[in-house]
Design goal:
The protein has about 25 residues and is mostly helical. It has one domain (about 1-25). It is built from two helices and no strands. The longest helix has 11 residues, at about 10-20. It is elongated.
C-alpha cells in the first residue's frame, strides 16, 4: 500500500471509506 501514506492527507473522507474496506477496525 504505497498510497496509504498520502491517502489520509489527500482525502480523509475517501480514505475512511477505502480503509473500512480493507480494515473494518478503521471505522
Amino acid at each position: 500500500m504505497r498510497f496509504a501514506h498520502a491517502a489520509p492527507d489527500f482525502n480523509p473522507m475517501c480514505w475512511c471509506k477505502f480503509g473500512a474496506r480493507i480494515d473494518p477496525s478503521l471505522q
